[in-house]
Amino acid sequence: MDRIDVPPAGPMDLPLSLLEMGCSGRFELITHPIPGQALPPQSTLPHGLPPTSLNPETEVEKRFLRDPAWLPIHDTDVAFQKFLKVTQRNVNVDSLLNCTASPLHSGLSVVRDPTTGMLLDFTEVLMENTGLSAKNSLSLQRQPGPPSESLRGSNTNYPFLPGGMEELTLDQIKKKSELEEEIDFENDLLKIPPGLKAGMDFTNKDAKVAKAEVNLMSLLETLDITDLQPEEEEKEEGKGKEEASKIPRTNSLEDLGIKDAVSSSTPAEKGKEEKSKPGEKPEENQKWAIPVDVTSPCEDFYKRIPNLAFKWPFELDVFQKQAVLRLEAHDSVFVAAHTSAGKTVVAEYAIALSQKHMTRTIYTSPIKALSNQKFRDFKNTFGDVGLLTGDVQLSPESSCLIMTTEILRSMLYNGSEVIRDLEWVIFDEVHYINDAERGVVWEEVLIMLPDHVSIILLSATVPNALEFSEWIGRIKKRHIYVISTLKRPVPLEHYLYTGNSTKTQKEMFLLVDAAGNFLTKGYYAAVDAKKERTSKHAQSFGTKNTSQNTSASQDRAVWLTLLHFLSQRQQTPVVAFTFSRTRCDENARSLDYMDLTSSIEKAEIHSFFQKSLSRLRGGDRQLPQILLMRDLLKRGVAIHHSGILPILKEVIEMLFSRGLVKVLFATETFAMGVNMPARTVVFDSIRKHDGTGFRNLLPGEYIQMAGRAGRRGLDATGTVMILCKAGVHEMADLHVMMLGKPTVLQSQFRLTYTMILNLLRVEALRVTDMMRRSFSESHRDTQAHEKKIIQLKQTLSTLSPLDTEGQLSDMLPYYHTVTELRVTTEALQRAILESVNGLKALSVGRVIVVNNKQHLNALGVILQVSNDSVNRTFTALIICEKGNEEGDGGGHAALPHLYNTALFVPEGPCSHTVQKLKLQDIMAITVKTLKVIPDRIIDNYNKRQQPRFKLDPPGQAISTAAQELLRLAEANPGSMATLDPVNDLQLKSVDVVEGSMRLRVLQDSLREFNCIHSPTFGEQFARVQERMSVEDELDRLRFLVSDQSLSLLPEYHQRIKVLQSLQYVDSSGAVQLKGRVACQISSHELLLTELLFENVLSPLAPEESAALLSCLVFTQNTQVEPHITNTLQEGIDKVLSVAQRIGELQRECGIPQTAEEFVGQFKFGLTEVVYCWARGMPFAEIALLTDVQEGTVVRCIQRLDEVLKEVRQAARIVGDSVLGSKMEKASLSIRRDIVFTASLYTH
């Protein structure tokens, strides 16, 4: 609409003006315009109408002809100069400055009529927190970032504040926001609700009880039973008192103890705390993990949830119902159950709930293959599901996102906007936290999740589910409900199989029945069956080869026999777990005559196989592995391990789940989460190689694999068979493996450079916070310690002050000397006892000086020494005062500090006692020994302990020994000569020598103190001791609460040292450019960043740089020597020298890994393969260049693509656009054909 110029208003014009109402295009006439203001329409909106769409021509002209940033100005070309003249372009330097508009500091608020709701007015309100953005705040109230960063976030963003991290300062608690006010339940209460005429009266009147006309007492009075009265009245009075004392307790919230619990928490948590624990008083030590009872049926389930968010075609088990109830209450749960027990139900319900609530759910799994399968399952169920893995990104705007845990971790660190809408995070296969390499990722994610996200953990059965949940509950400050069930929907029967020919094919022996009982009978039957077959010669002279290994032909005989037997009994499909890839292949190939499928099944397999591989290029369809597998599959046999091409693996999984693969030879990875149950599971052996050596399967691994047997709804029981090829395994091994406890969840938390840098770039988060919250530190109960510290401080303040005047002035140094003396003596005694000579000296008959609560420097003689080396005790005969045999008259207990060495001599008649002494009771070992008859002494003493022989005189042996001890004591009243640990016992270690010298010095110094002569010394010393013991305990607790007691703290300082010397962070801990680059990179961050900054990749061609970087993702050893170009060889040498330098630096900074180990992680076996692949060589030819299996090659190239993407990002940050585009080219050159065929699950 063209603008009309209206002449200024003249005297003849009516005083009218137009007012534009809102944005709807309505106008109103107003008659008295403000004088002097132009006539065109005025608007109720402060800034006028929002701009409409502009003319595209002017837009193009502005963008491409007038924009100085777009065209070069200094071009010498004549035509260009002419063009500049034509366009008359003005140089506008300001347009090059780009500054984001400052956020609006105010908004419009509506004023309405309270009765009619009519709109009366707009008022301008100032907005708080407008300056918050993803670059400076952890708060959820910050502004959303640009849409391009909303999914993965950016590595310059701050993460959102992790839940449970807010340790608020007092000022923050005192400073209240406008949203909350202190409600005083006593004063200023509204008596009349707004809008009502009458109200309530809250004044505290004593309730008047209307006197009942007839009561029991008045009736009884008429009966004249007087003796009832007093008791009744007392009772009534008592009742009255009780009631009176009950009422005031509930008068105000403060007395209930709720008030202080709430006021100490943050404003945001107030509501939550009240919600999470209604009606329970805050206990002293709260348990965060709450076990849920799944034994009794859940009767009122449908009453409590009348309309379920998701309905299943089957009735739920009790544990599933309990989990659903907890999810409805928005609580976090930990569900531990066997595979195929139906844990997915919990995940499905959470996804359904989040769809109902319009929020989002993230489902994480440890393995990419598992993510793809879950994507297909959930896509069929819910429709609105997305997938994020390293190389695939499908519908990321969906309400349910499936991803690997690593991606969730980077989203959390990079402050992705998805986190705002997140309601649930589901961690599947949580027992993966035991994985040494990747377990730390789970812990990081659990620690970094914000407060509003609830957690669902699904795991195989683990023994310490409660402890693990307790840890999560404590770091997140919320309850975790633990639902654990050991019930199997399909019980398992475990057999031993010894058959190896048609004659013996029925030899299977039940070892563990469906109820879980171990049957030894079955075991011995198997042993006998195996024995019968060994020749008579071998039985009498022992077999020639007792090794576990059997030849290929023997193996073949066993498998043919077994599979023939199983298919006869219709026990297929079978999964045969074999713990070596080559063994898998050999076993499958050896079944060349076996055909297990019908012709109809063959046709189905053929058509599915052809259809699935139709998107491969012609050459790729003729790969040897594919041809071999096609042949095997048609006969119902298949192989599944990491060396198989991913697309083939998926074909096999799909055919297996349809029941068309009858026998599957698989490695352990098949049992990890892939939900593909079979009728029978067979173990080729029970030993596996775990990277360091051969060992038996752990109970957890065995259960995980055996749990694949038994299909729910199809089989009554699942069959598990263990082949006894060479001989029957040891019974103890089998018992442990089948019925042992599964592996405990253990923390694999370790510090990684990426984690340290990611936390250092955010001032509000500290690495020590992360370490303190890790599962490895879960034994630290900081809250309990802090409560204790407060109590001890109060105790300290109540203790009476010390009197250190005059004679008592050296009381404290005296205390410290005595304490040191005690510690040194104990250390020396320990050393003596741990030595051979010391134990020899402490033998029967040795005279010792005893010092404990009952005896002070009394002589004794050893009668017996116990055998256990841990808590060794000595039985000794000790002399004492008459009447102090039992130890009740011990007056010296209060003064253990007086180090007088004078021996005890009884004042009255001498008596004796026989006691068991601990090591610390023996003050000194003297040089004397006595001839004693221990048995007689002990028997006589024990006899006289019985009441009827109480008054008998002591036996001959005892009285002789006691008199001898008394004589010794009287002969040496000062002290007796003792065995010196260094000279007599020949203990020459530095600690002992130093200790005994120090002991002499300390003993001499004791005599010089004045305080011991003070009359009030005893009581004053007791006070010092009390105060000092409290202070010591306080120091100990303060240390435990502080960061100094973290087990990983030294390593953290070492790693910071490495980062500082490489200039990733400066001395104050601020992250530098190199550190920013390293944040982008998920593995081997130091090496890659160094390569970038040293320009190692610049001279290389794109395909060469891809080949060089393959050393970061390839982990196997190869036998084949690669043939490579000279530039590549130079590149490899440079990489190795950089790695050597980093390795040595780490060593210098104190990290235990040697430089050789660090350099040894990088393997260059696939450089030639990747180089040729990037140059376009077909896959069939590449497979011939190396001995590495096809599946492994494909996986390495896929992971290499992720590394190239990371390097490209890093190059962008540094500003090296050439390297960035080179990485892009490299990435494009390897992304082709069979390596990057899309997964069948995602179509």
From TrEMBL:
Major location (coarse): cytoplasm
Region of interest called Disordered, as start-end residue ranges on this chain: 136-156, 225-287
- The yes or no answer to whether the keyword DNA-binding is present is no
Query: Which locations, inside or outside the cell, does it occupy?
Result: Cytoplasm
Q: Where is the Helicase C-terminal domain?
A: 595-760
Compositional bias ranges of the Basic and acidic residues kind? 236-246, 269-286
GO molecular-function annotation terms? Answer: ATP binding; hydrolase activity; RNA binding; RNA helicase activity
Question: What does the record list as GO biological process?
Answer: nuclear-transcribed mRNA catabolic process, 3'-5' exonucleolytic nonsense-mediated decay
Question: What keyword terms does UniProt attach to this protein?
Answer: ATP-binding, Cytoplasm, Helicase, Hydrolase, Nucleotide-binding, RNA-binding
What Gene Ontology terms describe where this protein resides (cellular component)? Ski complex
Catalytic activity entry: ATP + H2O = ADP + phosphate + H(+)
Indicate the segments forming the Helicase ATP-binding domain, all copies. Answer: 324-480
Q: Which PANTHER family match?
A: ATP-DEPENDENT RNA AND DNA HELICASE, ATP-DEPENDENT RNA HELICASE SUPV3L1, MITOCHONDRIAL-RELATED
What protein name is recorded for this chain? SKI2 subunit of superkiller complex
- Organism listed in the record: Amphiprion percula (Orange clownfish)
